[in-house]
Amino acid sequence: MGTFYVVRHAKAGSRGSWVGEDRLRPLSKKGMEQAEKLVSVLATFPVASIFSSPYLRCMQTVEPLARAHSIAVQTAQSLAEGHGLAGAMQFMGDSKLDHAVLCTHGDIVFEIVEWLVQHRVIRAGDGGFDKGSVWVVELKNEIPRQARFISAP
C-alpha cells in the first residue's frame, strides 16, 4: 500500500505574456501564497519525501513544504509536462515511496484523474485540477484504491 500526494503547481504568471524559457516561468504572487498555504493543507499528512518537476513553478510550489519538513526536494524529469500518467507511475508504482509528494503539471494531473475514474475510484467531476490543488491517492499493487481531492488554498 502506498499513499501519494499529487500536487498541481500553484498559479504561475501567464504563459502567453512570459518571455523566455517556459521552464523558468515563476509563480505569481497568488501562487507564492498558495505555496505557503500548502504547508498547512498537508500538515496532518505524514510527508516522507518530495519530488518535483524541474520547472521553476513546480519547485517553488513545494519549497515551503520542504522547509517545513526539513526535506530536500528531489527533481524528476518524469514529472515534467508531457510525461503523462507513465511519468507519475514511476513513483506511484514504488511502494517504498509511501507518503511522497509529487509536484507536477495539469496534463499529468488530468491523466491521473482519468485513471482514477477508469478504475472507479472516483466519478467524473468528483474533483478537479486547479492550480495548487492536491489529490491524495492510495494504491495497492499499483492499483488505485482510494482518492480524495483537496481544493487549492
Describe the structure in your own words.
The protein has 153 residues and is an alpha/beta fold. The chain has one domain (2-150): Phosphoglycerate mutase-like (Rossmann fold), CATH 3.40.50. Helix content is 32%, strand content 22%. It contains 4 helices and 6 strands. It has helices at residues 29-41, 56-69, 84-92, 106-118, and strands spanning 2-8, 49-52, 73-75, 100-104, 134-140, 143-150. The chain has a 6-stranded mixed beta sheet, sandwiched between helices. α3 crosses α4 (106-118). It starts with a strand and ends with a strand. The mean pLDDT is 93.
What's the layout of helices and strands?
Layout: E1 2-8, H1 29-41, E2 49-52, H2 56-69, E3 73-75, H3 84-92, E4 100-104, H4 106-118, E5 134-140, E6 143-150
Parallel strand pairs: 1-4, 2-3, 2-4
Antiparallel strand pairs: 1-5, 5-6
Helix pairs in contact: 1-2, 3-4
Quick description:
This protein is an alpha/beta fold and 153 residues long.
Mean pLDDT: 93
Using DSSP, what is the number of strands? 6
Distance between the termini: 28 Å
General form: globular
* Largest sheet, spatial ordering of strands: 3-2-4-1-5-6
Element-level helix/strand string: EHEHEHEHEE
Q: Rounded to an integer, what's the Rg over CA atoms? A: 14 Å
- Spell out the CATH superfamily: Phosphoglycerate mutase-like
Sheet-strand content, in percent, reads: 15-25%
Pick out the low-confidence regions: none
Instruction: Give the count of structural domains.
Output: 1
Which secondary-structure class do the elements indicate? alpha/beta
CATH class: Alpha Beta
CATH third-level topology: Rossmann fold
CATH architecture title: 3-Layer(aba) Sandwich
